[in-house]
Design brief:
heterodimer; A: 566 residues; Sodium/glucose cotransporter; B: mainly alpha; two-stranded antiparallel ribbon; 2 strands; elongated
Chain lengths: 566, 79
């Protein structure tokens, strides 16, 4: 049996397991919207951690990290993981716990419901809906591009008769279709509980299998020390943030050896991460404060205490997931197949997204390779499912139920409309994935996170600044959208979201400028317009459900809702 | 304790910009992890410690009481 066919069998079994989880979770489905969308707020600490982590980590963490490490060196860890370790937990603490408290108190099921109340505007959803959905599409796209690329690469040799163009691998377009289809089915069956259960299973799978991949590949390269030494010999600049003069000389020397036929590995040009770029990556992790799919998972928590494990373990799980992938990506720049003596990744290889699958395909035994691709799919599908649920949730709750009287549409019709909308967006994403198969998963991810990060001032101000007004919120969203689209267009024109060149503005990541503009718009317009009503201020800042009463001793009066009396 | 957490965050942010490791990969920690990468791995570990301190000392006590509150069926406001 070929390694590709083994991979096909393992992937098939894995997909069946996921479908079974969807069917099982459907058995405990209570038939209510609160159960479908927020699992009746009954998710405990461990499943919350697994579902939040699984949702946050997508192909960006597995395929994107190794691709970026291959392209630009191990600085990607500092740019993404150590910044995220600090700021994700802070966002979970400052934003997640408070939003959970408001959700519990006022029955929110989506972000837009919270913003509508906080900004006293029924039509706030009409502005936020297209922006949030528009930003989810590139997030979905990352998943589909990453999964389809991984499956096509890892199944190479399985169906040589049928798919000669892909060297026998399941073609990209079929792989993307299968991943979307299976995720849609188990999400439709199980709702957010099904997604949380599946995420727990998948998160365990991808963390464990990621470590197994690392050990297997390291052994095949002669051990981790030998693998790193080989990179030091060929591409030393890939092991540091900034290339030294000596690295340029080594590059020229190795290139001359390659061109003279003395070496089979073509060196990669030394790459430097500018100091300003490295620092301003710190704004990217603020995006988690505005992820609508994460908001939905926060609302599923059984209690505020459930968040504690997530706060603490999230940076550690990120480290466990990213570190092996980053090292494998760097090792790929100099890795040799032991049996043939040929480089694992051919010279001038441009499809960086395929680096990890190729390392697995060429270095791991077939069965392990199949398991490893299941791990990659686990990371990707554990994000796709939450995003699908979230799309359905915001469409049914924020558009259909908000603008159409309940007696005109039954529950069944609302559910069908919600599912129809999910299918529509997934179909559009699938179409985009066929259009941009070469887009860098990493670059796509950065732009998607940039968009969400530019909206982060909105949620921080809504929770911590009483003076924030509806007009200020609208100005923030519009500014983020206009400035963001402008710079995205420029970046796409110049880089096509691929290659080594990273689009920057004045030596900084674009998120810096877009975030500054949206924050400025929010503050200036809020100060220029009438403050929110006393009732709204009392509702969200009176007896704040997530504030220590000692901090607001003079405001310990409860107003409205089911929170209770004085 | 809130101030201590803020100071720790500032230290982590400053420590993240490890210009002293910028142009070197050695020593290799554990024989295979370049020193810059090892440094950032430590930042991840300290971020977890910081989160543990926040969860222990800065936790808003009133949120825990919400667990026993009955579930509300939909948004309360009429917007």
């Amino acid at each position: 049996m070929t390694s590709g066919l083994t991979a096909v069998i393992v992937i098939g079994i894995y997909m069946l397991l996921l479908l079974s989880i969807g069917v099982l979770s459907n058995r405990v489905f209570k038939g209510t919207a609160a159960d479908y969308f927020v699992a009746s707020r009954g998710i405990g600490p461990f499943v919350l951690l697994m579902s939040v982590f699984g949702t946050t980590m997508t192909s960006f963490a597995i395929i994107g990290s190794s691709a970026e490490a291959f392209t630009a060196g191990l600085g990607v860890y500092g740019k993404m993981v150590s910044w995220s370790g600090i700021f994700h937990s802070i966002c979970f603490f400052l934003v997640g716990v408070r939003l959970w408290a408001f959700g519990k108190r006022y029955g929110y099921q989506t972000q837009i419901q919270f913003f509508r109340d906080r900004f006293e505007s029924g039509h706030m959803g009409l502005l936020l809906f297209p922006v949030l959905v528009g930003l989810i599409v590139p997030y979905l796209l990352m998943g589909v591009v990453g999964a389809a690329t991984a499956i096509e690469s890892i199944t190479a040799g399985a169906f040589s008769v049928f798919f000669a163009a892909t060297k026998g691998g399941i073609p990209y377009w079929i792989a993307g279709l299968v991943v979307c289809g299976v995720t849609l089915i188990y999400v439709f069956f199980g709702g957010v509980r099904g997604a949380a259960w599946a995420n727990t299973f998948q998160t365990v799978v991808f963390v464990v299998l990621g470590l197994v991949t690392f050990v297997v590949i390291a052994q095949r390269l002669g051990g981790p020390a030998a693998a790193t030494r080989q990179v030091m010999h060929v591409n030393p600049a890939h092991l540091k943030l900034g290339a030294a003069d000596a690295d340029q000389k080594i590059y020229e020397q190795r290139l001359a050896e390659y061109e003279a036929g003395q070496s089979k590995i073509k060196p990669r040009r030394p790459h430097e991460i500018p100091s300003g770029v490295f620092f301003t990556y710190l704004f990217i992790p603020l995006s988690v404060a505005m992820f609508p799919h994460l908001f939905q998972h926060w609302l599923t928590a059984k209690s505020a205490r459930s968040f504690r494990l997530t706060l603490i373990a999230h940076p550690l799980l990120m480290m466990l997931t990213w570190l092996p992938c980053v090292l494998i990506g760097v090792w790929a720049t100099a890795a040799i197949v032991p049996e043939t003596g040929l480089p694992v990744i051919p010279p001038d290889f441009a499809r960086a997204n395929a680096v990890l699958p190729m390392m697995v395909n060429k270095l791991a035994p077939p069965f392990v390779g199949g398991l490893l691709v299941a791990g990659v799919l686990a990371a990707i599908m554990s994000s796709l499912d939450s995003q699908f649920i979230c799309l359905g949730s915001i469409f049914t709750n924020d558009i259909v139920s908000h603008y159409i009287r309940k007696d005109r549409l039954g529950d069944r019709a609302v559910l069908v409309l919600g599912r129809g909308f999910i299918v529509l967006i997934v179909a559009a994403t699938y179409g985009f994935s066929l259009w941009f198969p070469g887009a860098s998963v990493f670059r796509l991810g950065i732009w998607c996170f940039t968009g969400y990060a530019a909206l982060a001032p909105l949620v921080f101000a809504a929770l911590y600044w009483k003076r924030t007004t509806k007009a200020g919120a609208v100005a923030c969203v519009l500014t983020a959208a206009v400035v963001g689209v402008f710079f995205f267009y420029k970046a796409y024109s110049e880089t096509a979201l691929a290659g080594e060149h990273e689009y920057t503005i004045w030596g900084m990541m674009p998120v810096t400028i877009i975030l500054a503009a949206s924050t400025l718009a929010l503050v200036v317009v809020s100060l220029m317009t009438r403050p929110p009503s006393a009732a709204t201020v009392a509702k969200f800042f009176g007896t704040h459900p997530s504030l220590d009463a000692r901090a607001y001793p003079s405001e310990a009066v409860v107003v409205g809702g089911s929170w209770g009396a004085r | 304790m809130k101030n201590v957490s803020v100071v720790l965050v500032v230290f982590l942010v400053l420590g993240h910009h490890d210009f002293w490791n910028w142009h070197r990969s050695e020593p290799l920690i554990l024989g295979f992890i370049p020193v810059g990468l090892a440094w950032h791995t430590m930042i991840s570990l300290f971020a977890a410690v910081l989160a543990a301190l926040m969860a222990r000392y800065n936790w808003p006590p009133s949120v825990d009481a919400l667990e026993s509150m009955p579930e509300q069926t939909g948004p309360a406001a009429g917007h």
